[in-house]
Amino acid sequence: FASPSTKELGLLAVRLFGICVNAASVERLWSSMGFLQTNRRCCLKADVIY
What we know:
Number of domains: 1
Order of helices and strands: HHHH
Largest sheet: none
Number of helices: 4
Protein name: 18526_t:CDS:1
Structural class: mainly alpha
Shape: flat
Low-confidence stretches: none
Radius of gyration: 14 Å
Distance between the termini: 23 Å
Mean pLDDT: 68
InterPro entries: RNaseH-like_sf (IPR012337)
Number of strands: 0
Organism: Dentiscutata erythropus
Strand content: under 5%
């Protein structure tokens, strides 16, 4: 299951699923992970992403 090509996906999953939903720092954590959904990324066309 583990391969070098999925290393980044695994790290992202650990970050996302490691969030404690009742912690006071959740808002800050989601802000710091804003790189996942940015205005610039929303404007990319499919041929640019793939």
